[in-house]
Amino acid sequence: MSTSNVNGQGISFQHQHHHNSTASNPILALLTFILPVLLVLIDFKFKNEPTSVFQAHPITIKFAAANLLAFALAFGIEFTFQLCYLSTTCAPLLRTTILFCGFLSMASLASLLFPDSWRPLIYLIYVLLSLANLHGLVREWCRWIHQGIMEKLQTVCTGIQQWYVRRSSPLLPL
Question: How far is CA 51 from the centre of its chain?
């Protein structure tokens, strides 16, 4: 953590350091490199075609753009509200949204470079790679739900036990 000395007082830049160390920065760096490369390759592929990529594949382009916008929104939320301010349920969901939307946008654009018959295979590879992250999120949610159920069950059992002790003990000593 770096500090600066202004008028004899140290100022911490911990807030900036937190943003630089988030888990999504490698993903952002990867997409920052790959998306422009994909766009240039798509431009080269459709340069001599009579129709533009927007006319030839309007659904895929809209899908890629929508996922890129969702990725940017989710990343902006993560950047604005640090992970320490987000709940333990919201933070993993936000990270999963960033991963899914960013890579789905990338898969959609990559599918334009291959023949139409390969498109399902590209999306299948995307789904298989995404399942690992989804599996981790589901496991975390199950653990959170299990913990909540066990806490409620313990509260109910304690209440029943206290009720039983009050009911079975005499009010006046004999």
Answer: 36
